[in-house]
Design a protein that fits this description.
5-stranded mixed sheet; globular; mainly alpha; 2 domains; 23 helices
């Protein structure tokens, strides 16, 4: 395939990736993909800045946790206005960049066919498409992880590119601290082969890249905002960390019960074959390509990190997809020293007749995975879900004069309304007094569970408010009972 045709085919792959993500972009994903309502919570500060000219308007400030993601969303809102589509464009763009980076990584090290197939798998993989249509931090985090891999492979683990690899590792971590495991991946990829003196220089370059970004973030962002960041991280650690060594073992044993593996069974099987072949090649001292080794280490470190977590929603597993796709396709089209199709790590299989059987099995699994993704995408398109846009429409119609609205459901619908929003949550210190009066909250849009939380935290204030309030509307929600539209007494807004 000549260079022009190769470019044209990849353009079609990217176009396909763009189309499947932009189609019905304003609709919500099915509940089994994302039952949570984190989108509105994550873009809250960017929304504040664009609509009201201030980043911080209440006690919830996700921008302290993920400044890079919030600035990306702010840029989208500034260019295109506030809305569901505009917020989700950040994840769409991050997904497309990631697909391009994976293609670039595989093109030279594994061949153009492997690169195109990997790009196609990521373009239509149902889980990756679903989260690429949501305003969450994971797609941007994975983009920086893929960029780190690109720089590592582009420079052959040497020089300025290695420094840039370290920079991207830190950017991924600042985007979402779930990427903390990724710091060790390039170090592990540098370890095989080479002299000790050369390794030390490479480790130093990588560390310099990581520290150059982390140190700036630490002194200019973390220290000024450490109160909120530390409290948030402490709660997340309590959610994720096992209570004991036995708990960690139980969590690891339950790893494959996560819905993620049920959604990518065929791709997972193909990746497992690729992983076993790479491990076998290493055991037999066969030459392993840099991209295969890097993908193996990424997958291993990510898997080890997730295996001990007590709380691991589906989106935490999204970063597994890139190394899984690489391991699934490289054995099919990897280059060996003789240029043999399916060579490289496949030469570890003995007798040679096994290679054809393994390649046939992997090819069938990859083809079936593409069909499985197409089926799931088609089902989602035929059954669109628009709970949060519908809630935004009801807020505009039922309480159009609300100046300040508080509540989790309102935050989730916030990208579709222009009202000022306040979220009262467990990370804030309310010892300073009544937040309802302090922020002039005149309406609540809450579910029953959140209302019970308010009653526990404000036992003196809320009963009085509820006694004088008026229930305006009750809207059923798919996963949390109903959203209650409650008009508070007029003096709250004074």
């Amino acid at each position: 395939m000549n260079k022009f045709k190769r470019f044209q085919v990849f353009r079609l792959v990217l176009l396909l990736a763009l189309v499947v993500r932009l189609f019905q972009l304003s609709a919500d994903m099915p509940l089994y993909i994302s039952p949570c309502a984190d989108e509105g919570i994550y873009v809250h500060n960017a929304r504040n800045q664009v609509l009201f000219g201030e980043w911080v308007l209440d006690d919830w400030n996700n921008m302290y946790i993920s400044p890079i993601f919030n600035y990306f969303v702010y840029l989208s809102f500034s260019l295109f206005g506030v809305g569901f589509v505009q917020a989700r464009l950040v994840s769409v763009a991050a997904s497309l960049v990631t697909i391009w980076l994976v293609f670039a990584c595989l093109k030279n090290s594994a061949g153009i066919k492997a690169a195109l197939l990997a790009g196609l798998l990521l373009s239509v993989n149902y889980v990756y498409v679903a989260f690429g249509k949501m305003a969450l931090m994971e797609p941007a985090m994975i983009m920086f992880m893929a960029l780190a891999m690109y720089f590592f492979l582009r420079g052959g683990g040497r020089g300025t590119f290695l420094f840039l690899c370290g920079v991207c590792c830190s950017l991924a971590f600042i985007t979402k601290n779930l990427a903390g495991f990724y710091f060790i991946v390039p170090y592990a990829a540098l370890f095989p082969g080479g002299r000790a003196r050369g390794k030390l220089r490479r480790f130093s370059l990588l560390l310099a890249g990581q520290l150059s970004v982390i140190s700036v973030w630490f002194f200019t962002w973390y220290l000024p905002n450490r109160g909120f960041i530390d409290l948030h991280n402490r709660i997340k650690i309590e959610e994720r960390a096992p209570v004991s060594a036995a708990g960690a073992l139980i969590n690891a044993a339950a790893m494959f019960r996560n819905p993620f593996f049920g959604m990518v069974p065929l791709l997972g099987a193909a990746a497992l074959i690729g992983l076993l072949i790479v491990v076998l090649a290493a055991a037999r001292r066969k030459r392993i390509g840099a991209v295969e080794l890097y993908a193996l280490l990424w997958l291993a470190a990510n898997f080890a990190c997730l295996s001990v977590f007590s709380w691991r929603p589906l989106r935490y597993f999204l970063s597994l997809l890139v190394p899984m796709v690489i391991l699934a396709v490289v054995p099919l089209f990897g280059k060996s020293g003789t240029g043999e199709r399916g060579g490289g790590v496949l030469t570890a299989l003995y007798p040679p007749r096994w290679r054809k059987g393994v390649m046939t099995c992997t090819s069938l699994l990859v083809a079936a995975s593409l069909l499985w993704s197409a089926y799931n995408l088609g089902w989602t398109w035929l059954h669109p879900r628009s709970m949060w846009p519908s809630l935004a429409r009801e807020i505009r119609e039922r309480i159009p004069g609300a100046a300040v609205i508080s509540g989790g459901p309102a935050m989730s619908a916030g990208m579709g309304i222009k009202n000022r929003l306040v979220w009262i949550h467990q990370l804030a210190d309310y010892s300073r007094g009544d937040p309802f009066a302090r922020y002039g909250i005149d309406c609540l849009v809450v579910d029953g569970r959140e209302l019970e939380f308010y009653k526990r935290v404000f036992p003196d204030v809320l009963p009085r408010l509820m006694k004088e309030s008026r229930l305006v509307y009750r809207m059923p929600l798919d996963d949390r009972g109903a959203a209650l539209f409650i008009k508070l007494p007029a003096e709250q807004s004074d």
